[in-house]
From TrEMBL:
Ranges where the ApaG domain occurs: 3-128
Pfam families: DUF525
InterPro entries given in the database record: ApaG-like (IPR050718), ApaG_domain (IPR007474), ApaG_sf (IPR036767)
Domain of life of the native organism: Bacteria
Protein name: ApaG domain protein
Length: 128
């Protein structure tokens, strides 16, 4: 598990390899990830949007950004957490993801970014 705390918000990431399949006559490698966002600050916050940079071993980079996470914009009171599962496809059996969440502090109305730590994606059969 990978973890990082930014501005009192702890991000934890666990990854899984989901398998391979063919799409448009090309092999794809499917990965899943579980993210837990924990509010360790003294203020209530809301996740408003996300930004991801996904890179595979063939140097292909994909940028993903948008509102919320999996259709939600969770509000977290102090001590609360929110978990969600999502996934991505790579063109190679290795890759990495990193990014950030845009959040707003309800007490100060200040907008801030919370870093999502870089984490590796790797198919077990391709590991040394």
């Amino acid at each position: 598990m990978i973890q990082q705390v930014t501005s009192g918000i702890k991000i934890s990431v666990e990854t899984t390899f989901e398998g391979t399949f063919y799409k448009n006559y090309k092999i794809n490698f499917a990965f899943g990830y579980l993210i837990t966002i924990e509010n360790q600050s003294k203020d209530s916050v809301q996740l408003t949007s996300r930004f991801w940079k996904i890179k595979d071993a063939l140097n292909y980079t994909e940028i993903v950004q948008g509102e919320g996470v999996v259709g939600e914009k969770p509000v977290l009171k102090p001590g609360e957490s929110h978990s969600y599962r999502s996934g991505c496809l790579l063109k190679s059996p290795f890759g990495a993801m990193r990014g950030y969440y845009n959040m707003v502090n309800f007490t100060s109305t200040r907008k801030f970014k919370v870093s999502i730590p870089s984490f590796k994606l790797s198919a077990p059969f391709a590991m040394n």
